[in-house]
Design brief:
alpha/beta; 8 helices; 26% helix; elongated; LRR_dom_sf; FBD domain-containing protein
Length: 273
Amino acid sequence: MMHLENNFYPNAATLEKLISGAQVLEDLTIDNSITYRPRVIQVRSQTLKRIDISRCTYAVIDAPLLECLITKADQIKHYTITNSSFPAKLDIGVLSLFGQSEDVIRDILADIARVKDLVISSFLWKCMYQGLKSGAPLPPFRHLSCLNATFTIFDLEVLTTLLNNCPNLESLILELVKETSMFNMFRSDPKVKFSTVAGCLVSSLKFVELKSSISKYEIEMELVRYFLQNSPILEKLRVNSHYSGKAKSAILDQLLAMPRCSSACEILLLYTS
């Protein structure tokens, strides 16, 4: 493992030599490591499996064993994969999409379409979805089987657009997070209703985990209801709840009483502090 943070290098060759010299390197993080000129670095490794790169670095990656790429979206894409394979997992966050071109958005969407496992935020998805000014259809994410997504309650309106783009999704981890937009912080909670059923709920979805770092009982229950009532092959639904004691028992009773499309679905209610 190599973690390079807030380092300065006189040139790219120095950093590249440091990385290539680690002959059994499997995990690499480059966080705010800056070279004087240029900021493009060549990452060549026959053993590297995971790389995490920051916005201060543009990496050209030649790592045939790479399994996971962690990066953040900005005005540009901060990586290029030069070998024929692409990592199975992409964890893509967002710094700023101000001024990002439609070509960059399409490039990122094309990369998402190649992975099996995706970690993404609703803010990034909404920005990309709305940033396609041409109105052309989104590329389907046919390879995607595992999705880990964080959503605010105000962005749940675009949840079905994301799920509809994942026709073979089998596992979904969905986390409700605190709203950070000043505009939305003073708005009343939205009425969450899902008018359409994403195709993956009917054809492939087997596991759903719902997490929440906020207490929004009605919205959480609406999400549970959406998945239980529309997923005929769902095998397990896990709900992480802040509630304990009698409140937890009451919620469990309500969950068990909900109509479900899959008679084999197991429901787990877990307490998180």
